Amino acid sequence: MSHTAHIRSHRKPRRSASSLAVRSGVAGGVLSTLAVAGAAGYANAADAEPVTQTLQLPTLTADVATQVAQSADATQQAAANYELQAERDAAAASAAKQAKADLAEAKQKAEAKKKAQEEARKQAATRATRNAGRTVLSAYASAGTSNVTGTSTVTGTSAGTSTGSSSATGSAASIVSFVKSQVGKAYVSGATGPSAYDCSGLVQTAFKQVGISLPRVSQDQSTAGTQVSLNSLQPGDILYWGSAGSAYHVGVYVGGGMFVGAQNPSTGVVERPLSYDQPTGAVRVL
User: Fold this and answer.
1) CATH topology of domain 145-284
2) Between 131 and 180, where is the model more confident?
3) How far apart are CA 246 and CA 229, in angstroms?
């Protein structure tokens, strides 16, 4: 006997052939069943309709929808308010511009009206002066040649001339000759000659040549003699402007519708037709 015969073998005991056969049969049956089931499942899958999957989105709740609507209304209202304000601003700017233009136009019309009124007044004054001059000259023209006090003759002449014939004798002729000889001299307030005169100074000095003493100022000279009509003037008569007793200017009538006077600093002593500056009245001293 071997010395290892009494030790058990470490190898697993071999299975019997019958056990293996049984197990093989079971395994084969299972595989066959799986194969048949797989084939059947594939066939069913091929014949089945495709599956469609539907996704359902969440819906808005009533509160959220209300909030969205309110926000949209508020936005729309704000836009309308902005548009309305813009329209109001534009209208205000347009109104202010129009008001400014209207004011400027009104001022221009007022200034034009004022100028027109001033021009009308000037023209009316000019016409009045011319008409007065024409009246006086017409009176002279209609009278023709007239005898004055039997010693002096005055012939009517047309306006604007200083060549009308006039004759005066005695004291009147001396006064007329003197004042004409002073034409061209200067006007100086308060002066009585011989190189300059004011209006009353010339008249006073002229009458002094024939020994007649007159008051110094025009107010008193306008009442120094007898009041006479401007239609009955004689050479040597004193003409005055203003009213008797308060005259502001005087001169000497030299005949032919002319007078000599110390008018102002611009003209000095001049000889002019009565229409140049129509006198108010006259006094006769001679």
Assistant:
1) endopeptidase fold (from Nostoc punctiforme) (3.90.1720)
2) 180
3) 18
